[in-house]
Write a structure and sequence with these properties.
Elements (H helix, E strand, L loop, with lengths): L1 H7 L5 E6 L2 E8 L2 E8 L2 E4 L6 E9 L2 E8 L2 E7 L5 E9 L1 E5 L3 E8 L2 E8 L4 E5 L14
Antiparallel strand pairs: 1-2, 2-3, 3-4, 5-6, 6-7, 7-8, 9-10, 10-11, 11-12
Length: about 140
């Protein structure tokens, strides 16, 4: 629990999602936010890139999948059963707010403002839903 207590004292830092003994969020560091994983083994700052964060977390057969953004790009991070980072995928514009391990959802910066975005991670497909004004997909996809 020590990493969480330390995190709570850092203005601008936050944990956004947690499952069991793994949590994800952002750490305020000099220059901006950095994507963060907190696990039993300790805390891992995943990028040196400014303005990155992890907002969603889901269990997978290999461990966990965390999603968020790095700069203006989508960010997906695979974690093992203990929350240790295994791989990261950065690509496409937008932000991912949540995942169930098969799908991820968030927003895409379209020509008229933000559009809701859904990704089929297994099928490697994406859907954008232009909404009047600004639109995000914050909630979950349920099968």
């Amino acid at each position: 629990m020590a990493p969480c207590l330390i995190l709570s004292t850092l203005l601008g830092s936050a944990l956004f999602a947690g499952l069991g003994e793994v949590a994800v969020g952002r750490l305020w560091a000099e220059g901006g936010h950095r994507a963060l994983v907190v696990a039993q083994s300790g805390a891992h700052v995943l990028t040196r890139e400014e303005n990155s964060a992890l907002y969603g977390l889901a269990r997978t057969p290999d461990g966990y999948l965390a999603v968020g953004h790095m700069g203006k790009a989508l960010l997906q991070v695979g974690l093992d059963q203990k929350g240790e980072p295994l791989w990261a995928r950065v690509g496409g514009q937008g932000i991912l707010w949540g995942t169930d391990g098969r799908f991820a959802w968030g927003g895409y910066p379209g020509p008229e403002g933000w559009e809701a975005l859904a990704l089929d991670l297994a099928g490697e497909r994406a859907w954008r839903l232009p909404l009047p004004g600004q639109g995000y997909a914050y909630g979950g996809l349920y099968r």
